[in-house]
Amino acid sequence: MNWQIAIDGPASAGKSTIAKILASNLGYIYVDTGAMYRTVTLAVKRAHIDYNDESKVIELLDKINIDFEPDVSGQRVFLNHDDVTEEIRSNEITNNVSQVAAYADVRTDLVERQRQLAQEANIIMDGRDIGTTVLPLAQVKIFLVASVDERAQRRYKENMAKGMTANLETLKADIALRDYKDSHRAISPLIQADDAILVDTTGHSIEEVVTEITAIINDRQKK
Ligand code: CDP
Ligand code: CDP
């Protein structure tokens, strides 16, 4: 079996930042499953479908192709060959993605696509349900967390650097609401897998977290 590394955790815990660095260090393929849910949400918006209209959202799935291409900053995301890397990070998509991600048929469809990607190479995948549902046999499972205050601070700095408008209190409330929705949905909620290792990144730099997880991976690979 290929190597599979699953990184799950709440919003802005640092999953994608850490996963990209690990993938580059290890020469593994990185799959950002959050970007896939965001891309479906963008397709719903572009088709002028109400996010609450489950059957219309489901009908759209067959018309959605999602592709990733590596680039210097990590990777670019394409919706039907259109580069949507920046657009899927807009506030509107961020605030509606958890609604779309809660639909059973959306999850079944994307989980299938994610498992296909994992067939192809050694993989590092981040999301909410990778260790519990998508790749239950992953050799390494990390549950990455940080306090909600620190996660809001991180997102605030990131938005300011991108020139996006940001309000710290609003960001904190949005993150807490998304965590709540992701942890309380009926299907594949955000939950630590029994065999996942908890890594609390509060007060830790990116380098420190990379070092800690690299040691966990090295340890597993020796066995
Ligand atoms: O980067 P950020 O933490 O803001 O979120 P993301 O990883 O881009 O994921 C966006 C949303 O997609 C999450 O809030 C979940 O609602 C959903 N998601 C999911 O349900 N399952 C996954 N495996 C990944 C993301
Ligand atoms: O993917 P996820 O939503 O879990 O988080 P992310 O997008 O990787 O990280 C959110 C922000 O936190 C980014 O701007 C990272 O540079 C930053 N970060 C940090 O400051 N310290 C860490 N230990 C990890 C991430």
UniProtKB/TrEMBL annotation:
<comment type="similarity">
    <text>Belongs to the cytidylate kinase family. Type 1 subfamily.</text>
</comment>
<protein>
    <recommendedName>
        <fullName>Cytidylate kinase</fullName>
        <ecNumber>2.7.4.25</ecNumber>
    </recommendedName>
</protein>
<keyword id="KW-0808">Transferase</keyword>
<dbReference type="GO" id="GO:0036431">
    <property type="term" value="F:dCMP kinase activity"/>
</dbReference>
<keyword id="KW-0067">ATP-binding</keyword>
<keyword id="KW-0547">Nucleotide-binding</keyword>
<dbReference type="Pfam" id="PF02224">
    <property type="entry name" value="Cytidylate_kin"/>
</dbReference>
<dbReference type="InterPro" id="IPR011994">
    <property type="entry name" value="Cytidylate_kinase_dom"/>
</dbReference>
<keyword id="KW-0963">Cytoplasm</keyword>
<dbReference type="GO" id="GO:0036430">
    <property type="term" value="F:CMP kinase activity"/>
</dbReference>
<dbReference type="GO" id="GO:0005524">
    <property type="term" value="F:ATP binding"/>
</dbReference>
<feature type="domain" description="Cytidylate kinase">
    <location>
        <begin position="5"/>
        <end position="218"/>
    </location>
</feature>
<dbReference type="GO" id="GO:0005829">
    <property type="term" value="C:cytosol"/>
</dbReference>
<keyword id="KW-0418">Kinase</keyword>
<feature type="binding site">
    <location>
        <begin position="9"/>
        <end position="17"/>
    </location>
    <ligand>
        <name>ATP</name>
    </ligand>
</feature>
<dbReference type="GO" id="GO:0015949">
    <property type="term" value="P:nucleobase-containing small molecule interconversion"/>
</dbReference>
<dbReference type="InterPro" id="IPR003136">
    <property type="entry name" value="Cytidylate_kin"/>
</dbReference>
<dbReference type="InterPro" id="IPR027417">
    <property type="entry name" value="P-loop_NTPase"/>
</dbReference>
<dbReference type="GO" id="GO:0006220">
    <property type="term" value="P:pyrimidine nucleotide metabolic process"/>
</dbReference>
